[in-house]
Amino acid sequence: MPIKLERKHACPFTLVPLLIALGFVLFKLYTASKVTNPETGRTARVGLNPEQEQKLGLEAYAQVKKDEAAKIVLTGPEIDLVKRVTNKLAKAAAQKATVNYNWEISVIQSHEKNAFCLPGGKIVVYTGIIPVARNEAGLATVLGHEMAHATSRHGAERLFRSEITKTILGGAQQSLAQMDPNQRQTIMGALGAGAKYGATLPFSREQESEADHIGLLYMARAGYDPKEAIDFWHRMDELLGKGSPSEFMSDHPSHGTRISQLKAWMPEAEKEFTQYHSRAPAA
Ligand SMILES: [Zn+2]
Question: How many A from CA of 139 to the centre of ligand 1?
Answer without folding.
Answer: 14
